[in-house]
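Hey there, shall we discuss this one?
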Amino acid sequence: MTLPNSDVETTDELNARYAAALLPLTVIFAIFTVVGVLGNAGVIVVFSLGRASRNSTFRVFAIFLAIVDLMACAFLLPSEIAKHRNFFHFENLALCQLKVIHIQISLKTGKRMLK
């Protein structure tokens, strides 16, 4: 027995519906990506070239934090945007693996820094 087609929603239709519902969040993630990449790159340049705090632990912490956040803005947020656009057909295995690896690295390094 088959179901009538009028009641069944295809995965393409579900993708379109979810993408439309998640559009405001997707736009916010895109803004965060651009601002985060530019801002963290600026922090890395300023703290790397600055002479005032050449040998301070705060300088090392700020640079390390900017690098980790830059990686998040460059890899995690674009992968979330891709997931929002293709919620039921997210087939990019490399991007998915990169996202999981970055999350694990961020959690482990953050945990070590807090010890």
The CA atoms of residues 102 and 108 lie 10 Å apart. The mean pLDDT is 82.
